[in-house]
Design brief:
The protein is of the alpha/beta class. The chain has helices at about 5-20, 20-30, 35-45, 65-90, 100-120, 200-205, 225-230, 245-250, 280-295; strands at about 50-55, 60, 95-100, 120-130, 140-145, 155-165, 185-190, 220, 235-240, 260-270. This is LysR family transcriptional regulator.
Length: about 300
Amino acid sequence: MRRLPPLTGLRAFEAAARHLSFKRAADELHVTPTAISHQVRQLEEAIGVSLFERRTRQVALTAEGLILLPVLRDGFDSFARVIDGLSRTQRRTAVTLSATPAFTAKWLVPRIAAFRKARPDIDLTLLASLEVVGLGSGAADLALRYGPGPYPDLVAEPLTVDRFAPVASPRLGIKKTSDLRSATLLHFDWYRRDSRNPTWRRWLKIAGIDGIDARAGLRFSDETHAIQATVAGAGIALHSLLLVSDELAQGTLVVPFGPELEGFALHLVRDRNRPLTEPIEAVQAWLRAQFTAAPQ
């Protein structure tokens, strides 16, 4: 069993020895200088040695005080680090955000460092899946859903309406619609069949262009791969202007001509029956700000 003097005396001595001042120690510990002096005196009596030389308007450590100070200082520093670490661990929170693999890779990942810098206390997990993740089960706290809705049992907030247009590498030199006759069309096989999907067949009809086989070219089952192929110059594709916004800004992709096709809305959704915690609201606010600052 450890036989130690009272903790108040040890704290009083450590603070007074560190400052070489009873008054500054009292200010730090929010007590009076008299209380510091009394606690130090009790400590000296308990261990049977003098720790300070009392001089006029100042104090100095004795040889015993010089030995005791670093032991207590390092011990209290260790206590503070461990307790702070435990407190930080307790305060950390996790939020899971579900989105499609393409949106996760092309839009969320390039921006996630900014969120991490703003809220390092939130551990954000990006759950990339083409499957509809059930928010009621707790598999995710928030989701980004692209579609017409409605979303029963969910709080749904539209963030933006996506638009699609012909996109190509500037290296291909595609500048006018007649260039499509000699270009390779790139296709992405939509995981959901809908007459409003941005297919080449639909685009050519709206653009009033005949004589081009809307089925010919290269097909991709993964939207991210289709974007990579377009950047590499494999052909021209109808891409989400939202997902290729970075490439368009950098000039690695261009929109040589229109028209644009309007897509569905991108909704931020959460389960209405689960509590809206501050970390979840923080992620929501960050997503809203991204679209407010740079509307697509």
